[in-house]
Design goal:
Elements (H helix, E strand, L loop, with lengths): L12 E2 L5 H11 L3 E6 L2 E7 H6 L6 H4 L6 E2 L5 H11 L3 E6 L2 E7 H9 L9 E2 H13 L5 E7 L2 H8 L1 H18 L5 E7 L2 E6 L3 H12 L2 E3 L2 E3 L1 E7 L11 H18 L6
Parallel strand pairs: 1-2, 4-5, 7-9
Antiparallel strand pairs: 2-3, 5-6, 8-10, 8-13, 9-10, 11-12
Amino acid sequence: MKISEIMTTSAVTITSDKSVSHAAEQMKEYSTNYLVVVDHGELMGIVTSRHVGSAHPNRIVADAMDEPPMRMAPERNIWDAHRLLHEGEGELLLVMNQEEWVGVVTKEAIQMKLAEFLDPLTGLYRAPYILDIGEKWLEEKKPFHLMFIDVNDFGLINKQYGHPFGDDVIRSFSSLLSSLMEEDSDHVCRYAGDEFILLTTGSEEKAQRWMEAIIQPAEIYKVTVSAAVGHIDGFREPDFFAKTLRDHIAKASLLSTDAKKKKTSLAP
């Protein structure tokens, strides 16, 4: 999802020579917690309620505002915006179409939208999250590992032990997969039912380490549970960037099915 779909296109502006106390009054009057600072039509920065609260009321806005504010193009996705704000410890960013200011997106708006993509059982993001990241990496010609993970005999587990136990299995695997995430380049989602997808731009050694951990049978309430992995190595896969992410997921899914039959993992 692009940030242009959640941004606010109207915002209250203020000039940089106004006092901090005036900025506070403007925020109260317009029921907003930020103001865009514009001088003579030129974008100068952004001032928030945090700035206002930490600066002396008699100081001017120019002394309190963020300059330059964090910026992002409207076609970037909300996960990129989330990472930027997280890394910069910011509250909002300006949406810029080249040098033209076209909107504002707040951290709160991003978090509310991201919450819609969370799987309630596991707390992991759902498929749109991983699709967005993988497609972006393909566009950028950035090689990565894709792992399609399928819990073995999950239908039988549900049938024999009941759906609450099946939910425990899914949660247990989710915890295992989450524990593998080490860097910003690592991503995981619950793709569907008992299927998960991992992406990483990390090393071959990391990918192998992950697969070994995932296929290792685990005891859950005295029941042995295992999973199969289909692995696509974007550093070696022929014509990797000529294919879509859905192509790679489809192939990885077939590899996991083969692995399931052999009760082991498959890597090309």
